[in-house]
Specification:
Helix content is 69%, strand content 0%. It contains 45 helices and no strands.
Length: 812
């Protein structure tokens, strides 16, 4: 009797599902052919395009293992499905306008940038009636607690171990979601990259299409990140699908590009916004000013604000607050205060945020007298009474900058005026005292809170627990955790994590791990808890136990970051356990952790230190297989290792490969090449390689370093042949290189070589070191080369650096 395998059974199910889908399509088509045939035809075409572009969609979302790269498989594949959607209004696909690479932008001239901003504002219709239309994506708080939303979030969290059954469940649930609930799911994701992947995954599902409000919400989520390319794609989708684009949408994409460090591309969005026919309004103008301020372009922001007025867009309080923030970030407090004073004359009164921004800088710089003067101005000139919010703000800012005593003064003042500072304000002061190691003062504040009837909460006690751990009094921290129960306050995960961190900092990582294992029923460890113990074990050299913690983390659904993984890999390589480091990285990659280029490079460096180049090159191949492109550091590590082993031809090939990939060699790359090529007397090959490298990147001291390295290995004649390339610039660095060569000639007993170098220096208007030349002259005299000795010193006399012998005698 034949038994079907699981794969055969799944294949039959998929076949039946497709047959049912086709049957549904044709039945719908025949039912209302004349009225909806074009619509159904377009749907069928869309579905076919998406199925053709996403053959592996079954595991695209759940099977994605890398969350550290925006250019993931799902995002790249999503590009293919865009071509079936309508005509676009503006050219958002133009790579000249939006580059895909994350490389440093070409520096633009100030005139070009200012002209572009001026042109954008000048094109605004000045006669158009301006009204601020608030467009908000309203997501009810109840939606985030909806059982359907919570179940979908749970399934998304399980994506590392997805099965066809789980994905099928998620597909059915997604089709039942309301647009507001989809927005709630996007907002609920702690990692915005996961939210973006879910957005694309859901968009490809059969009989589901995102509501326009979901696009707006997705852009809002991405505006909090550096995922600018993802935000650009969402905007492009909206254009192609003819979804109304709000000015705020362009603002969200601008902020995302700004966060990623692409200021120029963020500004180009204003031009694209015009081409899309979207009107410029005050919200986008304020976003532009804020982006310029964040990019340290305050002067441009000021000019932009002035131009706004000229075209009829009146700046509001948000506009001025952005400019005030720009002044404060430059520590120009006087200019910020002056702008606040000018705001009423410009038709816009300052609000409390205007004053709070300046107060933050004054708190940071401990200018308490000026802080009080500003509070008086706030009352007299702006009629803004310092209230409880004002005092709470001051207390928190002073505590943040380590001024607990001053914060306590304002707390007392607030209470004298009848304001009640809550436990959050008291806790900020307690935390500040604990950071400074003043635990007695912190305990006094807690006792004062109890006497006032302001009960300390778990955050207050946790701050003191952390303070005890900071000064090494872990036993006191344990006692305090026990006392928390007496005061009706149950310690939480943060409290216990602070204690475990104290144990690890004091070399008791095994005790911390045992305490975490006994947490069941009392508290639930989180990702930070596991990381604390993992790093404690790592610092104590307990590598196997640290790796076990990583496996346990992943099993619990907590994914260590690339930085944490790299620290553990580095520690394993330092103790010679590179094989275990490679295994750890591979397992983390399989489990869905975000492994980056640095992790691979660290493993490669570990193998290179052990002189296991074959294993290092094998890891390089693994990088390509996992779509991780080596960077300059990766190549330099391998080039140096190959050079140390005398494999110069392979080092040359690796360098050529690096240049071919468009990567620029670092100074370390140059030094490594110079050392190993000169050591193995491959000067001609080195010179060919240098010429190729210098075509891509100017490196002024390249030949200087080659000459000095040749001198180090005693190859003075080869170094002398390259002297002409150094003496072209005749700089101080070139003079130092010549001196190195002269000393090497002297050391090798060849003063005539030093004489030749000195003469060539004089010919290039470089004056060699007088003491060194006197030493050369003595050596020449001792070898009976009197003419050369006299000519050398005569050169100094001609230039006035040595008086003639007759004058010396007269002076005597």
């Amino acid at each position: 009797m034949h038994t079907c395998s699981c794969s055969d059974e799944m294949g039959h199910k998929q076949l039946f599902a497709r047959i049912e889908a086709i049957r549904y399509l044709f039945s719908s088509w025949s039912y209302n052919y004349h009225s909806s045939a074009p619509l159904l035809a377009s749907k069928i075409c869309e579905h076919c395009v998406e199925r053709a572009d996403f053959d592996d969609r079954k595991h695209n979302f759940g099977g994605i293992r890398e969350t550290g790269s925006e250019e993931s498989t799902i995002l790249r594949s999503s590009e293919g499905g865009l071509c079936s959607w309508g005509e676009e209004k503006c050219n958002l696909d133009d790579c000249n306008e939006f580059g895909e690479s994350g490389k440093v932008e070409t520096v633009e001239s100030e005139e070009d940038s200012n002209e572009e901003l001026r042109r954008v504002l000048d094109s605004v219709d000045r006669n158009r009636r301006r009204t601020e239309v608030p467009r908000r994506v309203q997501v009810d708080e109840d939606e985030s607690r909806h059982p359907l939303v919570r179940e979908i979030c749970r399934l998304i969290d399980l994506r590392a171990g997805w099965t066809p059954r789980l994905e099928s469940d998620l597909k059915h649930l997604v089709r039942s979601l309301k647009p507001s609930q989809v927005c709630a799911v996007l907002r609920a994701q702690s990692d915005e990259r996961v939210a973006l992947k879910f957005f694309y995954w859901a968009d490809r599902q059969w009989r589901y299409r995102h509501d326009p409000v979901v696009y707006h919400e997705m852009l809002k989520v991405l505006s909090k990140t550096k995922l600018c390319q993802g935000a650009k794609r969402i905007l492009r989708l909206m254009v192609r699908r003819k979804i109304e684009i709000w000015p705020e949408d362009f603002g969200c994409v601008m902020v995302s590009f700004s966060r990623a460090g692409h200021l120029r591309k963020a500004m180009q969005l204003l031009t694209l916004m015009q081409r899309a026919g979207v009107d410029l309004d005050i919200s986008v103008c304020n976003t532009t000013i804020n982006v310029l301020v964040e990019g340290n372009k305050l002067e441009k922001a000021l000019r932009f604000s002035e131009r706004m007025k000229a075209v009829g867009i009146a700046p509001n309080v948000v506009t001025y607050n952005c400019l005030i923030k720009g002044y404060c970030e430059r520590n120009q407090v006087d200019d910020a205060t002056k702008l606040i004073a000018e705001m009423p004359h410009k038709g816009c009164s300052p609000d409390k945020v205007s004053y709070y921004t300046v107060m933050g800088i004054l708190c940071k710089e401990r200018r308490i007298d000026e802080l009080r003067g500003l509070m008086e101005k706030m009352l007299k000139e702006s009629n803004l009474l310092p209230d409880q919010v004002t005092y709470n703000t001051l207390i928190h800012m002073l505590s943040k900058y380590g001024q607990a005593e001053q914060a306590l003064v304002f707390l007392r003042e607030a209470e004298e005026r009848g304001f009640r500072i809550d436990k959050v304000g008291h806790t900020a002061i307690v935390n500040c005292f604990c950071r400074e190691g003043k635990l007695d003062r912190a305990k006094d504040i807690v006792n004062e809170m109890l006497s006032k009837g302001c009960s300390p909460d778990v955050v207050t006690y946790t701050a003191i627990v952390n303070g005890f751990c900071r000064v090494g009094e872990v036993d006191q921290a344990k006692k305090l955790l026990q006392q928390m129960y007496k005061h009706g306050c149950k310690p939480n995960c943060v409290s216990y994590t602070a204690l475990l961190n104290g144990l690890c900092q004091n070399g008791k990582s095994l005790e911390a791990r045992e305490m975490m294992n006994m947490s069941e029923g009392w508290w639930t460890p989180n990702a930070v808890t596991y990381s604390v113990i993992m790093h404690g074990l790592r610092r104590e050299g307990k590598m196997s136990e640290a790796c076990d913690i990583v496996w346990e983390m992943i099993k619990k659904g907590f994914y260590p970051s690339p930085v944490e993984i790299n620290l553990l890999i580095q520690s394993l390589c330092q103790v010679g356990r590179t094989d275990l480091a490679k295994k750890l990285m591979e397992e983390c990659l399989k489990k869905g952790c975000a492994i980056n280029v640095l992790n691979f490079t660290t493993v490669i460096h570990g193998f290179c230190k052990k002189d296991d180049l074959d294993a290092a090159l094998s890891v390089l191949d693994d990088m390509y297989l996992n779509n991780k492109h080596p960077d300059e550091v990766t190549y330099t590590t391998l080039i140096d290792a190959l050079g140390r082993r005398g494999r110069i031809d392979e080092a040359t090939e690796m360098t050529n490969k690096m240049i071919h990939c468009g990567l620029l060699p670092t100074p370390v790359t140059y030094r490594s090449l110079f050392h190993h090529f000169c050591q193995h007397r491959r000067v001609d090959d080195l010179l060919k390689l240098i010429e190729k490298m210098l075509r891509r990147q100017n490196f002024k001291t390249a030949y200087n370093q080659v000459i000095e390295k040749l001198c180090h290995f005693g190859q003075t004649e080869e170094a002398y042949k390259l002297l002409g390339k150094v003496l072209r610039t005749a700089s101080r660095v070139d003079a130092n290189t010549c001196h190195v060569l002269m000393k090497t000639f002297l050391k090798n007993g060849n003063p005539l070589g030093s004489y030749r170098v000195a003469c060539r220096m004089f010919n290039r208007n470089l004056v060699p070191d007088l003491k060194l030349c006197e030493e050369v002259s003595k050596k020449l005299i001792s070898e009976q080369k009197l003419d050369e000795a006299d000519k050398l010193m005569l050169r100094f006399v001609e230039r006035g650096h040595v008086p003639p012998k007759g004058k010396e005698a007269a002076l005597e």
